[in-house]
Design goal:
A hairpin with a 5-residue loop joins β2 and β3. With 169 residues, the chain is an alpha+beta fold. The strands form two sheets. Strands 1, 2, 3, 4, 5, 6, 9 and 10 form an eight-stranded antiparallel beta sheet that branches. The chain has one domain: Electron Transport, Fmn-binding Protein, Chain A (Pnp Oxidase, Chain A, Roll).
């Protein structure tokens, strides 16, 4: 089945259900043309600065972190439930150590912006607008740091991307 570009006004997207229950796969292509991905379960969708946006969260120790840092664009891909085992694999193995995309049998497609997955059913193509790292001292509710990060030194980075294309099967 081919992708069709749809207008945001025609999209019904439940961010909480899609990220938390379904998971997304963030893919980014670096300046050398190499792509890497990781499964994400934290994200949000909305409007900021008069633009439709998605925000994704990536730990700095993840191999994909350097790819998204080196990219102007990235994609967030959503899949049917039948791919849950494959998404788990993509989230627990590093592209630094193996071709994890080939391992699960997925295929990258590319447009003029970035890479995305042929097997996805919904793809957001995003232009990176802002990136930063969470800082311990900025948490008002300190229990988040103790409950989620449990003494780890590195906190998530976050990337705010403007939705420039939505592709749906």
């Amino acid at each position: 089945m081919e992708f069709k570009e749809i207008e945001l006004k025609d999209l019904y997207f439940e961010a909480n259900k899609s990220f938390n229950n379904g998971w997304g796969v963030l893919a980014a292509t670096n300046k050398e043309g190499k792509t890497n991905c990781l499964t994400i379960s934290w994200g949000t969708y909305g409007e900021l600065w008069n633009k439709p946006i998605l925000i994704a969260f990536v730990r700095p120790e993840r191999y994909t972190h350097q790819f998204i840092g080196d990219s102007e664009y990235f994609s967030i891909n959503f899949f049917d439930d039948k791919y849950k085992k494959d998404l788990s694999y993509l989230g627990t193995h590093s592209g630094k150590d193996e071709d994890k995309v080939a391992h699960v049998g997925f295929h990258y497609l590319k447009n003029k912006y970035t890479s995305f997955f042929e097997e996805a059913n919904l793809v957001f193509i995003l232009k990176k607008l802002y990136e930063d790292d969470f800082k311990r001292e900025n948490f008002i509710d300190k229990s988040i740091v103790s409950d989620i990060y449990r003494g780890e030194n590195k906190l998530h980075s976050f990337y705010i991307g403007e939705v420039i294309k939505v592709l749906k099967k």
